[in-house]
Amino acid sequence: MLDRQTYFIKERVRVLRISDTYDILDPQTQENIGIAVERPGNFIRVLRLLVNKRLLPTRVDVHEHENEPPILSIKRGANPFTARIDILNGEGEAIGYFKSKLFSLGGGFHVYDVRDNKVAEVKGNWKGWDFKFIDNSGKQVGTVTKSWAGFAQELFTSADNYVINLQNPNAGTGGLLLAAGLAIDTVYNEN
Known about the structure:
Elements: E1 6-11, E2 21-25, E3 32-38, H1 42-47, E4 58-63, E5 72-76, E6 84-89, E7 94-100, E8 108-113, E9 118-124, E10 130-134, E11 140-147, H2 151-156, E12 161-166, H3 174-189
Antiparallel strand pairs: 1-2, 1-12, 2-3, 3-4, 4-5, 5-6, 6-7, 7-8, 8-9, 9-10, 10-11, 11-12
């Protein structure tokens, strides 16, 4: 799953949700190719009733199939001011991390590999709906675009749909860039 170029991410709509679940679909066939499930601890679930969830630690596990071990995990600690998001492979080993920018009009963060080498930058537009992945040479290597979910869903829920498109993903960056696309909504934008 991590070598694909395009993913359609569809957030499941729920009433009174404390954690989020995202279906990962093939954009052409709408076939389910994976799932991302947010797994905050039990104490954190209770705190979310009182505190903005962006201020609390969380973990998002990405699975090819719901009842299988994760192939990728996105883990945010408790420090919201210098947000560092760790990315782990299926064995729980670090493959990289994201570090938020101090100031950005459209939102964004830097993507680093496990050796602290910056491999990309995620830049948002002023609306916060579209993001570009830019490599170190300034070349665009991917995008995240919010997709219209329909009038009722857009008006009455915070559930989002979006498309992650990667140009030439490889073993070194494919998982990091998919995680970056998921992190935009799951870690940075959700309230």
